[in-house]
Amino acid sequence: MDNREITRITGVNPRKCMRCGKCSAVCPAYDEMEYHPHQFVAMIEGGAVEELANSRGIWRCLSCMACMERCPRQVEPARLVEAVRLKVIRQAGKNHLLPDQIPGLLDPDMPQQALVSALRKYGK
Known about the structure:
Elements: H1 3-10, H2 22-26, H3 37-46, H4 49-53, H5 57-60, H6 66-70, H7 77-91, H8 102-105, H9 112-122
Helix pairs in contact: 1-7, 3-7
């Protein structure tokens, strides 16, 4: 998995990011992620996709799209996070999440919005 593939899938140009941090400032999962939205974009641009794919932070993103709303350059960090998540899921051979699997995956600190988002995305 490389950065060109991620940018091709999403249509997002990470080079437009000016590292202002506005996306990270509005991120409700900021404290839960080891890489914040603006860092995530920089890592995609720098080719550190595998490092991101192995990160627990991609699963902590709430997909609330607040970062996309706040970005003055329309970089859309949430779309990049989603693309890396999907690549990881597809590489593992799983492209859906069954409701019976959820109890085993629960983390007591996980926000409910993340669970709803997971069901919406992977329950199809």
